Amino acid sequence: MKEIRLTGDCPGERVDRFLSENMADLSRSYIQKLLKDGSILVNGRSVKANYKINEDDEITIQIPDPEVLDILPENIPLDILYEDDDILVVNKPKGMVVHPSPGHYSHTLVNAVLFHCKGRLSGINGVLRPGIVHRIDKDTTGSLLICKNDRSHQILAGALKEHSITRRYHAIVHGNLKEDTGTVNAPIGRHPVDRKKMSTKAPGGRHAVTHYKVLERFGDYTYIECKLETGRTHQIRVHMADIGHPVLGDAVYGPAKCPFKLEGQTLHAKILGFIHPSAGEYMEFDAPLPEYFVSLLERLRIRRG
Question: Which residues are catalytic?
Answer without folding.
Answer: 137
